Amino acid sequence: MKYFFLSAMGLPYLRSHTSADAYRHKCFVCGKCYKTRSKLNRHARYECGASRNQLQCWVCGRMFSRPDNLRQHECLHAMQRL
């Protein structure tokens, strides 16, 4: 448990990072839980949905399910060319 201070009053309060409420957004397809709705939406769109492994690297042909992972991978190819 960690102590945090309220900015307005300076009063300490406890916040648990491992409480049951922390992972309250659950995927209805596979059952994985996430802290935020945006993480659940990203999971549903790219990891659990129909677009899984639909993005392909134009250099080596490796498949990715998320565009941010593809961009990071393509940066590796760009660094190899230098």
Question: Would you kindly provide a written description of the structure presented here, covering whatever features stand out?
Answer:
This protein is α+β, with helices and mostly antiparallel strands. It folds into two domains: 20-49; 53-82. Helix content is 32%, strand content 20%. The strands form three sheets. It has a two-stranded antiparallel ribbon with strand order 1-2. A two-stranded antiparallel sheet has the order 3-4. A two-stranded antiparallel ribbon has the order 5-6. The radius of gyration is 19 Å and the shape is elongated. The termini are far apart. The model has no long low-confidence stretch (mean pLDDT 79). This is C2H2-type domain-containing protein. InterPro entries: Znf_C2H2_sf (IPR036236), Znf_C2H2_type (IPR013087). Keywords: Metal-binding, Zinc, Zinc-finger.
Compile the SSE list and pairings:
Layout: E1 2-5, E2 12-15, E3 25-26, E4 33-34, H1 37-47, E5 55-56, E6 63-64, H2 67-81
Antiparallel strand pairs: 1-2, 3-4, 5-6
**Major β-sheet annotation:** 2 strands, antiparallel
Distance between the termini: 47 Å
Overall average residue pLDDT: 79
Structural class: alpha+beta
Spans of at least 5 consecutive residues with low confidence: none
